[in-house]
Amino acid sequence: MEADEWIRWALSADLPSSKSIGQHAVGRVLICLASYANRDGTAWPSAQTMADAISGLTRRDVRNALDLLAEAQLILDVGRKNRSIRWRLCPNGTSEHATASENFNSAGQVAGQVAGQVAGQVAGQVAGYPAMSRDEVSSSPSVRQVPFSPTPRSAGRRGSKNEPANTATVPEQLVARLSHYGIPPEMHEAVLAKARVDPETEFPEGRLRSSPDFARRCFSQVKADRSASLDASPRCEDHEDSSASNCSSCRADVLVGDRPKHYIGKRLPASWQARA
To answer: Which of 34, 111, 216, 258 could form a disulfide with 6 if both were Cys (CB 3.0 to 4.6 A apart)?
Structure first.
């Protein structure tokens, strides 16, 4: 379609709204985006460019409107052009794009299963044991089935008691999209929780589904927060480069008899220093 046809579609689209931004403002953003669209319905103006072109709206208003339009499946994030997000106008909704993504993921799962079976058969022949298929494993009484329960890597570690409990539930569509972005399943709840506290994001789930850059940025922030919490643990008083709870130098001193066990991570008394 030509540019004027995209604008006519934007004028007749069923627009969403929210408490912070009304249908009129959302419609103006969609019309502005349509004015930049090429024949394929793809446009990549920056939020600041659109805010400058639309009187009365700020950059944050434009971003909130784009997130709302993406959640309503009227536009779809298809990557980046230079430093701007490439948006595709979707007159028929984004279900066709989601179906293509699901088909792609299903093909990858089938290929992974076939590769795993072939590798298992080869390994079984080398070891002298026949490889078992998944159906044979599930029906075999000698194989105990353990349900998989993903937990954060920091669970059970000292210092994780102060971390807030992550009770967020991740919708199935968002799980598929985050997995497509390469984010591990055990990190999905933490990424959603991080997106919900972002001050510039009013619709975190919609923005995570439509913007891979935002999802990966939240993922990086979660990893940085967890690394910082581990680095903030108390340091050994004798060896500042080691954690007080797991100082390898102190444990080595205990093994050779130069330090009592209850002084791991603590300053060694002068009497013991003289012995050493």
So the answer is: 34
Q: Are strands 42-43 and 75-81 parallel, antiparallel or unpaired?
A: unpaired
| Length of the chain in terms of residues written | 276
Rounded Cα gap, residues 21 and 37, in angstroms: 23
Which two tokens mark 83? Answer: 């430093």
The model's pLDDT over 149-186, given as tens digits with 9 standing for 90+, comes to: 444 444 444 444 444 444 447 788 788 888 888 888 88
Helix/strand/coil for 72: coil
Break the chain into its structural domains and give their ranges. 3-89, 96-139, 164-231, 235-276
Using DSSP, state whether 62 is helix, strand or coil.
helix
| pTM for the full predicted model | 0.38
Architecture per CATH, 3-89: Orthogonal Bundle (1.10)
Per-residue pLDDT of 74-111, as tens digits, reads 999 888 877 788 898 988 775 444 444 445 445 555 55
Sequence-separated (6 or more) residues with CB below 8 Å from residue 54: 28, 29, 32, 62
Residue 270: strand, helix, or coil: helix
